[in-house]
């Protein structure tokens, strides 16, 4: 039986930054007890789906007691990992993790890269990126790293030009050339696919695209290239927990041939194994 606990993050996220880093109690004790289950915070798609595959097909044989908790935002999984409410998380990229630690004083570290979810540009109004009209509105994620990734994607496909060297820290203020006079609507990443009826196009993270029944490999007007991409999604823990035997076992299972085949079969190019 699937044992995945879904968390209503609309309630949790509001207190995550103020309370999450100081929370303590039985949840923390349970999550850090190496004799108990390894509780992993994850975005529903594809992260929790991959973890559930591991739980249902690989974990028992490997001697791993795995529990999956689903979160729909990009904040609470890290604050819950920091305060010990969960033992690990699986939802983010290294640039996002570095930025989060810097801004929030957290101590989350990467354990292993698992997959890439290519960021894509989608539209309900045009079929090709170059069909966007002058003054078109494009929704982009509003968190630092994903906003920068979105603008880099648009720049890589000739829709705008950015200042040299801005990387994933890019914001609309770093645009040096904007021939189509695009305007940008900055939204929480989870809201970008829902905005497609209200904007001309939206840059959507791979996990949220899949949740919205978009097929990145087929539906995206333009898509991030996989080669040389630093934005692989990773398993992460609080610093000092890297040697937890449960974490090591999960890292092995997440990078196993069985998981690679599951990713290839289920996501058909919309999620790419990075191992």
How many beta-strand elements?
A: 14
Summarize model confidence as the mean pLDDT. 89
The helix fraction, in percent, is 25-40%
Please tell me how large the radius of gyration is: 19 Å
| Helix-strand sequence | EHHHEHEHEHEEEHEEEEHHEEHHE
Helix count? Answer: 11
Sheet with the most strands: spatial strand order:
1-3-2-4-13-5-14
Query: How many strands, which pairing sense, and closed or not: the largest β-sheet?
Result: 7 strands, mixed
Low-confidence stretches: 1-29
Helix and strand composition category: alpha/beta
Strand content: 15-25%
Shape: globular
Oligomer: single chain
Distance between the termini: 29 Å
Descriptive overview:
Helices cover 35% and strands 22% of the residues. The chain has helices spanning 9-12, 16-19, 26-32, 44-62, 76-83, 94-104, 144-156, 206-211, 216-219, 245-254, 257-267; strands at 4-6, 38-42, 66-70, 88-93, 108-116, 120-122, 137-141, 161-162, 175-177, 183-187, 201-204, 222-223, 233-238, 272-273. The strands form three sheets. Strands 1-3-2-4-13-5-14 form a seven-stranded mixed β-sheet, sandwiched between helices. A five-stranded mixed β-sheet has the order 10-7-11-6-12. A two-stranded antiparallel sheet has the order 8-9. Helix 4 (44-62) links the parallel strand 2 (38-42) and strand 3. The longest helix has 19 residues, at 44-62. The radius of gyration is 19 Å and the shape is globular. The two termini are 29 Å apart. The model is unreliable at 1-29 (pLDDT under 50). Belongs to the nlpA lipoprotein family. Pfam families: Lipoprotein_9 (PF03180). InterPro entries: Lipoprotein_NlpA. Keywords: Lipoprotein, Membrane, Palmitate, Signal.
